[in-house]
């Protein structure tokens, strides 16, 4: 309520209200000054309001007093319950934890004024989850309330927590939340086999390394605490088997380490131990974290293929062994209870099988072709054995046959030698060291011996010195050699081996005599050098050869230039277009000159030809040829030829062999006709003399004479 001292209660004063919430939340009676709330207030929404009030004269509208400010504070009541803003909660605690082990802390929030009364004082309690867990009423910390809670018994717990204000008194507001608590696993349980004996049946044909069975120990723990390691306890049959752990199923997988044989042993018994990999020292007192079970394996009898007595056979045979000779045998047996016969045959996948054969019943291997060690020193093929009772059951074995060498090749000089001896060689001087090679497979310690052939032993030009280490030296026996007397010497050397039978060969060495300096360095071995004058050096010989080559080149160039110059002169005289003089007094080269004119008419009088252009000059323009009427039979030429023929037939001095007689007869006329231009069919009008003006100033007058008038047929009347 507002009141002014100037208000006499007669209605002359008017009260006004302004500020925070005026007109919306609060209103004022203008006459009495009473302030009223026109809607509900919420302290949690707005805890106070600041307003301004003033007293105004009703008539003059002027303020009677200065404006005054006041605050309206909203008083709190317990109208908000506690709330768990982070709920619901999820927590975990290890199993077998002691009483009081920390689990989780929860917190509830009350929106009421914590400074006024107990509206915001919260107390926590458990509505559901006892007697397993407890909670601190003030802090909200949840702890375990029972010892040795086992995850394998119960893993999940749901706890209902209540938060109540007013200090938990009657009439207080409350809120709840849920806490889901999981017991985490610890390794508190050892692995246990569900039974003490496991029986397995395994075929004897099982492959080494294959899995033949599985056993499993049960561990109620979880995760890595349930990981199990299996081991075979040393004992009966343990060395034939192995066991590993399947990391997904934690089963023990038994594998075969060695092959089984029903005929050798039909059953095996051994023990398997299962233990945890990750142990917890807090539970060692519970007992050993492992368990043991017995595994009995019964071997099943299977129809097996034959078994060879050896994994591989190696045989030897001499290369000269006759065809059909037995060189060895393979043996295979059927080890099953009802033993069956075995048959042998070659594996025909190999190309070398044709060299050998095998007896199908006995397994003996014999040669089928002649063997040559130098061609193939070793043969490698396979033999297959099958059971008669079940041919599909087969086994294979490799056979290696080494071909032994027989001394059939004589030793020879290993490489071709180019041997030379100086003219100034001394007796006993070694001019060449030679070695030998043998195509046979030489045994260890085989020796080669060297000696001169008996046919030259009495000619002491050279000798052979055997060094007893498979080498020999060629030594000179004379004091100097002459190339002029003999340039080449041929020395036959006999080489023998030490094998049986002894093989030998004669090898001829070619020794060339060379000119050397005083130190023994070869200077020349050429044949031509023998005939050169003494004292002429190599440089002088080269200079002489160069001079000869230069002279030959000069002569060839001179001849070529002369020919080229002569050819150019001839072409210039014939093709010069400025030459206006034509020579007609050319007699030619006689009847055998067929290039200057056509002599076809003389050889065959009956041939009628058109007039041809001369061949000895280059025509300037194409001229029309005149046609002559066909000539009559030239009887005078025929009579002349017959007369001369008779004269030669009766001439006793004529040669008795065929010869060519030339008859120089010109006849009574010339088919070449006249060379004059008087009878030419062409006229000056047909000629074009414009080219004369292109010949230069010397032909200017001639060009003006022939070029003044042009022939025009249209002007002729």
UniProtKB/TrEMBL annotation:
It comes from the Eukaryota. One of its GO terms (cellular component) is catenin complex. This is Cadherin-12. The chain crosses the membrane at residues 530-561. Residues 4-84, 85-193, 194-308, 309-413, 413-531 form the Cadherin domain. SUPFAM superfamilies: Cadherin-like. It is found in: Cell membrane. GO terms for biological process: adherens junction organization; calcium-dependent cell-cell adhesion via plasma membrane cell adhesion molecules; cell migration; cell morphogenesis; cell-cell adhesion mediated by cadherin; cell-cell junction assembly; homophilic cell adhesion via plasma membrane adhesion molecules. Pfam families: CADH_Y-type_LIR, Cadherin. Gene3D superfamilies: Cadherins (2.60.40.60), TCF3-CBD (Catenin binding domain) (4.10.900.10). CDD domains: Cadherin_repeat. InterPro entries: Cadherin, Cadherin-like_dom, Cadherin-like_sf, Cadherin_CS, Cadherin_Y-type_LIR, Catenin-bd_sf. Keywords: Calcium, Cell adhesion, Cell membrane, Cleavage on pair of basic residues, Glycoprotein, Membrane, Metal-binding, Phosphoprotein, Repeat, Signal, Transmembrane, Transmembrane helix. Cadherins are calcium-dependent cell adhesion proteins. They preferentially interact with themselves in a homophilic manner in connecting cells; cadherins may thus contribute to the sorting of heterogeneous cell types. It is a single-pass type I membrane protein. SMART domains: CA. One of its GO terms (molecular function) is beta-catenin binding.
């Amino acid at each position: 309520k507002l009141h002014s001292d100037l208000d006499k209660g007669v209605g002359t004063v008017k009260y006004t209200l302004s500020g925070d919430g005026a007109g919306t939340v609060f209103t004022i009676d203008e006459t009495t000054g009473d302030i009223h709330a026109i809607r509900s207030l919420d302290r949690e929404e707005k805890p106070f309001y600041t307003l301004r009030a003033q007293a105004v004269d009703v008539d003059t509208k002027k303020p009677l007093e200065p404006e005054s400010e006041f605050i309206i504070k909203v008083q709190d009541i317990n109208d908000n319950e506690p709330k768990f803003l982070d709920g619901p909660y999820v927590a975990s605690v290890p199993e077998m934890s002691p009483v009081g082990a920390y689990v989780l802390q929860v917190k509830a929030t009350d929106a009421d004024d914590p400074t006024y009364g107990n509206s915001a004082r919260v107390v926590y309690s458990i509505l559901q989850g006892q007697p397993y867990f407890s909670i601190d009423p003030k802090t909200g910390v949840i702890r375990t309330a029972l010892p040795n809670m086992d995850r394998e018994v119960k893993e999940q717990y749901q706890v209902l927590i209540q938060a109540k204000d007013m200090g938990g008194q009657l009439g207080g507001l409350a809120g709840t939340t849920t806490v889901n608590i999981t017991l985490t696993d610890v390794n508190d349980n050892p692995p246990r086999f569900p039974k003490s004996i496991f029986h397995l049946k395994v075929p004897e044909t099982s492959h080494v390394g294959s899995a033949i069975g599985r056993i499993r120990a049960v561990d109620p723990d979880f995760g890595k605490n349930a990981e199990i390691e299996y081991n075979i306890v040393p004992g009966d049959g343990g060395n034939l088997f192995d066991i590993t752990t399947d990391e997904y199923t934690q089963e023990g997988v038994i594998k075969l380490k060695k092959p089984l044989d029903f005929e050798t042993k039909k059953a095996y018994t051994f023990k398997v131990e299962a233990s945890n990999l990750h142990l917890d020292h807090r539970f060692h007192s519970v007992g050993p974290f492992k368990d043991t079970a017995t595994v009995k394996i019964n071997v099943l009898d299977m129809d097996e293929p034959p078994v060879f007595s050896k994994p591989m056979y190696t045989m030897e045979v001499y290369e000269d062994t006759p065809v059909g000779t037995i060189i060895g045998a393979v043996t295979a047996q059927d080890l099953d209870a009802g033993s069956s016969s075995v048959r042998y045959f070659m594996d025909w996948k190999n190309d070398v099988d044709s060299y050998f054969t095998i007896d199908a019943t006995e397994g003996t291997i014999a040669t089928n072709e002649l063997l040559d060690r130098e061609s193939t020193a070793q043969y490698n093929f396979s033999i297959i054995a099958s059971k008669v009772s079940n041919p599909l059951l087969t086994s294979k074995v490799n056979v290696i046959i080494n071909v032994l060498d027989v001394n059939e090749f004589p030793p020879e000089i290993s490489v071709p030698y180019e041997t030379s001896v100086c003219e100034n060689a001394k007796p006993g001087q070694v001019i060449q060291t030679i070695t030998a090679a043998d195509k046979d497979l030489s045994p260890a310690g085989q020796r080669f011996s060297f000696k001169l052939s008996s046919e030259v032993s009495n000619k002491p030009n050279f000798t052979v010195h055997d060094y007893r280490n498979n080498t020999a030296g060629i030594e000179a026996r004379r004091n100097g050699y002459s190339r002029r007397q003999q340039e080449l010497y041929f020395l036959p050397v006999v080489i023998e081996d030490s094998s049986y039978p002894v093989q030998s060969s004669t090898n001829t060495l070619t020794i060339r005599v060379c000119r050397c300096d005083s130190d023994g360095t070869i200077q020349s071995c050429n044949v031509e050098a023998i005939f050169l004058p003494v004292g002429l050096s190599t440089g002088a010989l080269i200079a002489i050869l160069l001079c000869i080559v230069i002279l030959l080149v000069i002569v060839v160039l001179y001849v070529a230039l002369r020919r080229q110059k002569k050819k150019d002169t001839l072409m210039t005289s014939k093709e010069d277009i400025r030459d206006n003089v034509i020579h007609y007094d050319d007699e030619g080269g006689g009847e055998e000159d067929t290039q200057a004119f056509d002599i076809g008419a003389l050889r065959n009088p009956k041939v009628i030809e058109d007039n041809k252009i001369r061949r000895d000059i280059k025509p300037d323009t194409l001229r029309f040829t005149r046609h002559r009427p066909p000539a009559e039979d030239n009887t005078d030429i025929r009579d002349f030829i017959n007369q001369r023929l008779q004269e030669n037939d009766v001439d006793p001095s004529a040669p008795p062999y065929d010869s060519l007689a030339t008859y120089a007869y010109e006849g009574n006329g010339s088919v070449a006709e006249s060379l004059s231009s008087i009878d030419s069919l062409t006229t000056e009008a047909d000629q074009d003399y414009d080219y004369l003006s292109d010949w230069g100033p010397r032909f200017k007058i001639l060009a003006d004479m022939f070029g003044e008038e042009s022939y025009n047929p249209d002007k002729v009347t």
